[in-house]
Amino acid sequence: MATVPTVRGRIDSSQLGVTLVHEHLCPGGGPFGSVAGFEKEAMEYQVMLAKKAVEVGINTLVDCGPFPDIPKVIALNQRVPELNLILSTGAYGQGSGPAGIQELSEAGMEEHMIKDITEGYEGFEDTGIRAGIIKVAGNRADVTENEWEAKNFRAAARAQSRHHVPIVTHACTGARSQMELLREHGASISATFYSHIEAKFGWEGRSLEGQIEYLEEVTRAGGYLQFNNFDFGFDTPWEEMVHLLKRLEADEFGDRVFISIDANWSFDEDGRVWHEAEKEHPETGRRTYAYTITHAAPMLMAEGFSLHRINRYLIDNPRRFFEAFDAK
User: Fold this and answer.
1) Which residue, of 17, 171, 208, 297, is most buried by count of CB atoms within 10 Å of its CB?
2) All residues at 6 or more sequence positions from 22 whose CB lies less than 8 Å from its CB, including other chains
3) DSSP assignment, residue 315?
4) Are 143 and 153 in contact (CB under 8 A)?
């Protein structure tokens, strides 16, 4: 077993329970939108979603936004204390995030990550809250083609090696390239996972079978793959997502799979909440944390996935991931 830092303190990995490994806490707007003028409403909406997650049996959310709003996250967890919240450090892709982060050198990025892991977030060190996972993002098939992003991967690998904190990447494209760069610079691949790998626009022209072969190079090295495109058929046709999952199971890589939702939202100028892609695809408006249990799990069961397998994606695999260094 291992201990994992959460907003309310360190917990044993056995207490993680049902874990959504790639989510966003958006009481202050989240990574993709704004709540300007609707701060109170945003907090109430966030609290409501968190409570509904608890009601359906979700125990832990991993916030993959690397710049958490600490006072609002504390307030959220005070109102929903049953939920374990794991926060991240690191960076999004080039051009996203605070100017101070965009200006960091490679050494500066590594130092920033390590400070959030060991001392706490700037200005909130006395809260005791520490980052429990490192987030980095790549937007190229070959992550080394963007030096700003590549340096963050190198920094993340060294920070992980020094402090034994897992890594999550944004990997709509280039998962294998990201894995290879992290490994080259000292990362433990069994403590890394690659998000959104089912997004078809990132397959670089590969066929479905070609994408399976590509992704299995990551799982063969010990890395994990995260799927979230439920009700996102415009990015990944459902039948192809199911085929990917079934092949991973058939090839005995089911213990390297996570499912999550990647829920995020913002408010428009009239105070209406919009979830990602909801304006163009209204069905995505129901994609909340709780949706994992109320919709995504039943969708998989209808395709022949057993409850045992789904529990593995939501409970066993996340726990093993956070225990990666303890197992060595």
Assistant:
1) 171
2) 62, 64, 168, 195, 226, 228, 258, 260, 261, 262
3) I
4) yes
Residue that is written with structure tokens 């989240």 in the block = 30
**H/E element, 5:** strand 3-6
- Half-sphere exposure in the Cβ direction for 302 (13 Å, CA): 8
Angle, helices 238-250/208-220, rounded to nearest 10 degrees: 40
The residue type found at 236 is: T
- Please name the residues in contact with 147: beta carbons below 8 A apart, sequence gap of 6 or more: none
Q: Which residue in 189, 200, 279, 201 sits closest to 225, CA to CA?
A: 189
pLDDT in tens, 174-196: 999 999 999 999 999 999 999 99
**Whole-number CA gyration radius for the chain:** 18
Q: 38 with 271: CB under 8 angstroms?
A: yes
Q: What residues does each domain of the chain span?
A: 3-322
Confidence of residue 95 (pLDDT cuts 50, 70, 90): confident
Residue 40 DSSP code: H
Among 283, 205, 300, CA closest to 243:
300
**Strand spans (E) along 112-229:** 133-137, 167-170, 192-195, 224-227
The per-residue pLDDT for 202 is 98
What architecture (CATH level 2) is domain 3-322?
Answer: Alpha-Beta Barrel (3.20)
225 alpha-carbon distance from chain centroid: 11
Task: Look up residue 295 and give its amino acid.
Answer: H
Looking at residue 252, what is its pLDDT? 98
Model confidence pLDDT, tens digit, residues 33-82: 556 778 889 999 999 999 999 999 999 999 999 999 999 999 999 999 99
Contact in structure between 187 and 157 (CB atoms under 8 Å): yes
**CA gap 180, 174 in Å, rounded:** 10
Strand partners, 257: 225
H-type alpha helices, 119-237: 147-163, 175-184, 208-220
**The amino acid at 84:** N
Average pLDDT score over residue span 256-267: 94
pLDDT for 29 beyond 70: no
